[in-house]
Structure formats: C-alpha cells, structure tokens
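tool=predict chain=A
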Amino acid sequence: MRAQLQGVRVEVLQERFGQLLRRALYQRMGQDVGGPGAGEVRYQLRVAPVLQQEAVGIQRDGTSSRVRTIGTVNWLLAQPGPPPVTLASGVERSIEAYNIPPSQFFASDSSREFAEQRLAETLADLTVTRLAIFFRQPDTGLVAPADPSPPVVPLPGADLTPVDPAARGLPPGLGTRFR
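tool=predict ok
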C-alpha cells in the first residue's frame, strides 16, 4: 500500500489553504513536498477544498469572539492517460474553531492561520486514510489481498437469528435483519 500511495501525484492547488492541504497530503503519503518524479506517477489525485466560516461567539456589540471554519474536500483518484480512468472519489469534512481576541489583530490572524493548518492536516489524514482503504481492497486489483479476516465471533448473549423485516413493521424487500 505504501508503494501505491507514493505513486500518487496531487494536482497543484491555488490559494494558501490549498497549498497547506497539498503539502499535508504529500507528507501523509510518505513523499517529498514536490511529489513523485515524472516516471513514478501512477495515480493522479484531484482535490477541491472549500472553506466556510461562521461566527459562533457574538458579543453585545455585534462583533464575533469565535469563528468556526468548516473545511470540505472533494477528491478524485484517477489513473493518468488518455482518457484518465476514475478509480475512486469521495468527500471529507472537518471543523476547526479559533478565538478572536479583542483589539489584537495579529493574534487573531495567527489563530486563523493555525486553525487552517490544523484543518488542512485533518482533511489530509481523512483523505489519505480513504485512499489507503481503497488500495487495500482486494477487488481493486491494485494490491494483493490481505490475510483473510478472522471469523466473526458474536458477543455473549447476541442473537443472530434472521428476523423477517415485516415482523418489525418494515416494508418487505429490505433484506434479512438480525435481532
């Protein structure tokens, strides 16, 4: 899986948050900040980050004392080539917040920068985890299947007898349910 992750190239992102996210993605995939060399690129990762901010601590004069930042990353993993083949895609989301100290512009600006840094790192963690899960799946044909999973052992007192969905008041066709 590590070899698969090291062959992923992240497209260049604009704006400061995009650059923080790209750097964090490369770090989590075990690569240099520049990414893999031209001959080592096996996959292309396209990410589209979006930041939304909302004031959550409103003072009596109407100014905010705390800001919540919601970061969303839409990502798409593809094999390069004419035409590129989409292998996987997803959406990751995380929330960070920071305080706005009164009459301290530089402290507020520094707090915002650190919150964006933490957000980029968290979103990179989530995205690389999803990529690792994708590469780990035996049906992708990209990695050898892992050792068979251990058998499922029910918890003491668990009843695993099938239950008819209609007996629970559910519409038919929902599949087998367990108690």
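The CA atoms of residues 53 and 69 lie 4 Å apart. The radius of gyration is 22 Å.
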